[in-house]
Amino acid sequence: MKEDIRIHLNDSRQLEKMYRANKNNFKREFSELYPELKGNALADFWNERLNYENEEINWGTGRELGIVIIASLFAGLIARLPDLLPITDAFFYPRNTAFVIFPLLTAYFAWKNKLSVGKIVFIVFTIIAGMLLINFLPDVRKSDTLILACIHLPLFLWSVLGFAFVGGRQNNEQRRLGFLKYNGDLIVMTTLILISGAILTGITIGLFSLIGFNIEEYYFKNVAVFGLAAAPIIGTYLTQTNPQLVGKVSPVIAKLFSPLVVVMLSAYLIAILYSGKDPYQDRDFLLIFNALLIGVLAIIFFSIAETSNSGKSRVQTGILFILSVLTVLVNGIALSAILFRISEFGITPNRIAVLGGNMLILINLLLVTLQLFRVLAKKSDITSVGKSISFYLPVYFIWTIIVTFFFPFIFGFK
């Protein structure tokens, strides 16, 4: 669509037709293209028009709203399959929770972006392949590879969702960063929806209990499950049709939490020296250490996506640089601890998975840290940091494929 916008830049009527054909896609593509068009009278007019903040909530077309409602109900039915089919909760939910949400969100973006038949076939094939593999893996009571597959499968499906969001286009760094920003906005919106749902649940159950009806079991099985499954879908729809709802909240959260995490991580690293905890010997501590690493990494990526989107901020860039350096230090400790455990206790699927994941994260962090340093040294701009993240995202996708699809066979389902 970008090329069409360029071609018809001076044809107001044609631009209007393109806009009305797909408003969200037109706005997204025009916003990415506008820095090149700034100064053109018609381009400036369209920029003002598209970025005018309407205080009213846009509920989209009736067709879009109907599709979202159907998708939400379908997600609830998937979540309730253990009650409808002879499947135990213990078997179904660890393997299939990700299939409640990700395929439907992927279908939504595939529809919105009007993907080609070939790309849709690829998406359907990958989702079905993941579903068949995870459900046909042996139901072994203690299987590290099964646990690893269940952990990495949501990441695999998240990557497929990213493919649909980007539109399957290659070398589109801005759209990949947009995907990270979408995830941050979705977390904010879904959290608000869930909080509202929790309040409604409490009021409903309380009111019915006052008149002698104990509806807890029925409510959670038939209403709450559907609400939980629908929350990310509705959250996605609202963020896509009303970007202004969280458009100002997410940057504030990014700027607020980045310095707080710097302080927390610095204090935590100092406290480790006095706690006596040893990641080289304490397996549980090492697991928590890695969970901390992933959480901080997510904050860095989300903050950079917001900073790249909102423009230059030297103070914010400096904070992100310090946070990246601290995270590299945490990653280095975790990586050395994993290598020590492998040398002392041998190779296991868990250790190899954690080792591979930590090495990939370390390389990505070093690239990000280097680019942040170049920005602070005024040798580059903030967009280069975003490119170093977006360029690397497919590497994580490949790793999730290896762990999810190949580890169970490599290690004999152990």
Automatic annotation (TrEMBL):
Q: Which UniProt keywords apply?
A: Membrane, Transmembrane, Transmembrane helix
Is-annotated flag, keyword ATP-binding?
Answer: no
Specify the protein name. Answer: DUF4153 domain-containing protein
Q: Where are the transmembrane segments?
A: 65-81, 93-111, 117-134, 146-166, 186-211, 223-240, 252-273, 285-305, 317-340, 352-373, 393-413
Give the superkingdom in one word: Bacteria
